[in-house]
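Morning - flavin-adenine dinucleotide inputs below, output right after.
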Amino acid sequence: MKVFSYQKAASPAEAAAAALRTPGARFIAGGTNLLDLMKLEIETPAHLIDVNGLALDQVEATKDGGLRIGALVRNTALAAHATVRRDYGVLSRALLAGASAQLRNKATTAGNLLQRTRCPYFYDTNQACNKRVPGSGCSAIAGFSRPLAILGGSDTCIATHPSDMAVALRVLDAGIDTVRADGAVRTIPIADFYCLPGNTPQRETVLQPGELITSVTLPPPVGGTHVYRKVRDRASYAFALVSVAAIILPDGTGRLALGGVAPQPWRVAGAEQALPAGTAAVNERLLAGAKPTADNAYKVILAQRTVASVLRQTPAMKG
Ligand SMILES: Cc1cc2nc3c(=O)[nH]c(=O)nc-3n(C[C@H](O)[C@H](O)[C@H](O)COP(=O)(O)OP(=O)(O)OC[C@H]3O[C@@H](n4cnc5c(N)ncnc54)[C@H](O)[C@@H]3O)c2cc1C
Ligand code: SF4
């Protein structure tokens, strides 16, 4: 591991200012992703800003009936929170489908959103990877691409985003609250938060240098049946090959997003409008434009079948 300096953040605004002014600075929260990447020298921050002491670890009701989740709320605490379990079940289920109990005890809301891809070539510093070393090439496209993206990729990168939590937040229309180095705050809709790779796969979100996530805000609950179905190689402790987050309302309308298939949670408005027309119409629109490789063509069929299975499970769609 490379040598780095370390500081504890005193306030969110001060942390953001320090991150912008210090070359090579990174925030550290639970450390469950960043420290692994540092040990492999995939990430080599010169300075760590430890945000764990900040007062960002509460879940609280918002004035409009929604929920504000502090950036430092641990995945275990969020999944177990009574309001989340009652009103945002898809989020609780997605969190419990991720990682292991020990990891969830450390992992934070912000860190989970910003975890890096699990593309095997990203983790192998002997291999070309445009995301790790811009312009070096992509070993995955003509290599082993079984776990990688079928949607939203580009000629430079076909990595998937690995977070389960983010897929649930996408159907919940979450907002990502931040503070920037100049003290300005903003809320980024999760629909706009993740970048597609295009020609710059190293740029994964719209966050600006130094920008700190302070919380995630959920709108008031919408009701309905909440499902998170994750298909993976092992029953636990494995990333999604395909996942489906769904909220289906009693009248048969609803929301759907896929995980494990794209560089961002994959939600298509037209697919949701097709819910009353049935599963085939939903799948056709949700997977329109899919560009699988020979290795991961199975994901198209797996996604179709997982969506079908989820919709069969929801009372409004059974008939
Ligand atoms: C073996 C293993 C299996 C896993 N399986 C799954 C799985 O199945 N599903 C799943 O979803 N996840 C899985 N994970 C990933 C796990 O969920 C993430 O490692 C965790 O959520 C990251 O949170 P953290 O707080 O530890 O982040 P850290 O490692 O501390 O940070 C991650 C990134 O976020 C940045 N960051 C942290 N806080 C902030 C902030 N407030 N503002 C701005 N930037 C910030 C850091 O600079 C860093 O770039 C697995 C991890 C491991 C090691
Ligand atoms: S798919 Fe993306 S992360 Fe994987 S090797 Fe190619 S550029 Fe790197």
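Note: The mean pLDDT is 97.

O.
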